[in-house]
Amino acid sequence: MKTWYLNNIKRTTVALVVFYHVCYIFNGVGILGAIPGSQTLPFFDDCATFIYPWFMVLMYVVAGIDSWYALQKKTVRQFLKARTIKLLIPSTLGLMVFQWITGYVGMLAGGQADLIPPALRWPIAVLSGTGPLWFVQVLYIYSLLIVLYQKLDPENKLRALCSKANFWVLLALALVIYASSFVLNLPVLTMYRFGIYFVSFMIGYLFFSNENIQQLPARYAPWLMSAAIVCGLGYVWLYHGQNFTSDAILQSLPTNLYLWLMVLAILGIYQRYFNTPTSFSIWMNKTSYGVYVLHYPILQTICYFNVQIFHLPGWLCYLAGFVLVYPLSLLLEEILIRIPLVRVLVLGWSSKPHQKQISG
Length: 360
Description:
Layout lengths: L3 H22 L16 H32 L2 H34 L8 H10 L6 H19 L4 H6 L4 H14 L13 H15 L2 H9 L1 H18 L8 H4 L2 H21 L5 H31 L4 H23 L3 H8 L13
């Protein structure tokens, strides 16, 4: 069975992450992390509201599927080595090489840099520079847990049971997603929602790694996507102007029903219509992980200068973010992959340029 659609979902979701972060960094709904003094365009707050509930859940579902396929091609040792290089090193040591920029620019934008002793600025910048790499850190933890799970179920009996699910069972998993939204959520660092993301990862590993299960959403893909878009518009109307990252909204039943419907719709649409590689998609898939890792410090720096130094109008700040960040991330990636040690520490590239595999 062709699974190229999974790579296409990943590259599309990375593009959505970049788009979302532009909306987020100028948000006017009270989410921490916005550049102080920035002008908000409410339309883009609504766009962020539409995207936020489901795009990270989708990434963890796809990561769960990927993990199953990776473990079929690699030994446990090879799997853990690949995940350590690709996930753990950039999200820990990489903070000291590149991601500290996120923390430092955040201090500048918030007016806190002058209040911190010079000797402590870089360490604090490193510790606060995780940014979007929280996803990578959590995925590494789940990679360790899935190896432990395999030892507990070496014959994959639970996966075999999940392979018998029908379409209605897949829809009913929305209730499991809803229940998991209440579990293991960190205070303050609200992006670390261990419960719902681990459940999403395991649903990908146990259910959607089965070829027959992957076919189910594809059969109803147009209907699922139509329903998901209608629900999404209703969701935006329901929570317009509110902090859509608050527990009250993320743990609501409408949020979780909508997000799961959209996840099923995207899995179905891509499996049905976007399951063929092209030269462009192959290139995009090779670069998308690097864009994910690199884009946020670039975005934050551009937005800081545009808002607090150049005092550009709001619409121009948004435009600069949308237009510049992705190509600059690609350009920086092309530079960094040519620097042997840096490409490992920042991007998790252990191979030479143009030898990097799409998944691992």
